## 1
Amino acid sequence: MDQTKQEEEYGYDLFPERNKGKFKKGSIAESLFTFNHKCQVMLQFAMETSPYAKLLLGAMQSSGCTVFKDRHFSCEECDGTVSGGFDAASSQIVLCQNNIHQQSHMNRVVTHELIHAFDHCRAHVDWFNNFRHLACSEIRAANLSGDCSFSNEVARFNFGLKQHHQECVRGRALRSILAVRKISRQEAEKIVDEVFDTCFNDHAPFGRIPHGNKDARFAYRDYKNRDRYYANL
Ligand SMILES: [Zn+2]
């Protein structure tokens, strides 16, 4: 497979800065610096204050995959409307500094990508060749990151809450797969449906579906207390 084709099939064309050397630093260097700085500040804030992020960072540390801000996160310019990505080849989370402008959005993207990183840490995920692995992690990320929680509020009166959430998770997982892999929609739908129930019901490390910051704070509290009985012996 030639390199350009491979880059497209693995979604790397969405992240031009991943091809070091090709990226040109132009006269907009100063505004890029400002964007980059803002992205770093929002990332730091997410890591310190989001209960979703704190739980995931703690769980990864316990699993022997300590996340370091400078090593495992990278604020970059991205193409199109993508907000972030997980680069399994370098174990790095890419945050799209040109597409993330609000703290709440940053929190969601950091959480979504940390769920991929968590899956990468705990399981031997074959991101590139096994579409079922990729589909499973996308289902979990959409289900547990709050990606589908905001729209729940809007749709509450139109759908059963539970059903709407599942439909949202399925739709988001599909879109994520189609954005980074060249496969047909039909093929992607089949794969998502095959693994949906198993992966939708895998809530690790949250122990529940956190439908908002309040749920996530409870999940984080339970997570911190998980060894309490042993510690009190
Ligand atoms: Zn994803």
## 2
Amino acid sequence: MVEKFSDALAEVRRTNPKFFLADASEFPEAPPPVCADCRDLGFVPADAEGRMKPCVCADRKRQQVFQAALDEIFPIYSTRGFSFETYRPETDSQRAALRLCQDFVEDYPPEKGILLAGGTGLGKTCLLYLALRGALVHTVFNFERFKTTMLFSRIRSTFNSDKPGRETEYDIIRRLVAVDVLVLDDLGVEKAGEWADGILYTILDGRLEKRRPTLASTNLTGETLDQKLGHRLASRKHDLFNVVEMAGADRRVPKSVHNPASP
Ligand SMILES: [Zn+2]
């Protein structure tokens, strides 16, 4: 009978030498930490009482992750080097839209979201992309982008599934209310009906209440927009958003096409 634990160990070592791991000195050295400030902990001392604060490297990592997510939902904008400086406003309304998106970044989180209205090619989506990208340096932790029609079909698709654990209408609404920044393209593109108007209202109103901004665009303006948005949403439009109706020529078309008489 083995009387002592050390004797038991010695016995195991003698009869089965492979049972023990190699000597600690045989392990390779751990690679040196990437961040010399926090030794890759992600936190550094904030004061003499031992409180900690996030290290700059953690913030840099966070931004890399978000930039990758941003590239995924705005694929054509990420590679083209857009910035507020490269957007050249050609009309007063374009200048107002630019100012609004810059303020969004500077004053994040803002009182309300942004709705940019106007024809195609005015740079609406680009400006909203820049506003979201700029807000990433603040406390934005998550964001989503939906074409409004896609949002409705996504919600409708939940009605036909009986699978356990399936996504429900409520799940989607709750998620879109909770996300830090929501981008909605083509608001009011179809007359969606009372059901869809109600869903959209619930999401936008829930977000406003929690002061989570929505960045939206639409090709419609004036009365047409209000009709397509539905009464309830149209009447609260200015509570939910700072609205700019953008005027001007399609920026993607060469000027000579619009004004062949110009030199
Ligand atoms: Zn660090």
